[in-house]
């Protein structure tokens, strides 16, 4: 853990902890995961809850979180992070527990664990990165893949008639009584980064107040999986992902804010 000494004007010395490790980020250039990681660590640092925070990372790109986040993190089987987070939270109810998951993990193999943890209102934070594709394992179609979007398993585009519609998992769980705070953000511009950080801080404060489950979706790009450069992927995300997955708060203080 890197500690940076800062000299205050009155010559008093205090320490600021950097909660990102020194490991070089291994995500594809332009990926939103690195920014999302930084935001989570900044919030934990600013709230002064480092020693009381435990993260859960499952399978997929998100499994790399424990290489970069300098807090206690354990790994869960594919899709099972909310179940493991439930166990940890109930064992140590005064800790701050968060999961960090991708769309293939959370909304496909982990659908049951996600739905039931949210329905029970577990006092945890779920951070859900949605890039509409299985980024780590070959660019396969995910539950959140858009209509007509090409992937390695939908080379001619997602056909609604045979493959179903994209799953708006965030709107779905917002309607469950156990969820207290549900929001959808992004991290591709400075303005959106600030909003995402505010949302993450709200979520951890909800844990402190024992309000129940906070769910934060971060719509991100996957420029390598989408076969685009970073700028192209950000533009494509704005033009195609945001209309289907609109940004903003969906549920605040247990009350729905927008139609689901």
From TrEMBL:
Listed SUPFAM superfamilies: Thiamin diphosphate-binding fold (THDP-binding)
Presence of keyword Oxidoreductase: yes
InterPro entries in the cross-refs: 2-oxoacid:Fd_oxidoreductase (IPR051457), THDP-binding (IPR029061), TPP_enzyme_TPP-bd (IPR011766)
Transmembrane segments annotated in the record for this chain: none
Domain of life: Bacteria
One Pfam match: TPP_enzyme_C
Limits of the Thiamine pyrophosphate enzyme TPP-binding domain: 67-217
Assigned keywords, A-Z: Oxidoreductase
PANTHER family: 2-OXOGLUTARATE OXIDOREDUCTASE SUBUNIT KORB-RELATED, SUBUNIT OF PYRUVATE:FLAVODOXIN OXIDOREDUCTASE
The name this protein goes by in its record: Thiamine pyrophosphate enzyme TPP-binding domain-containing protein
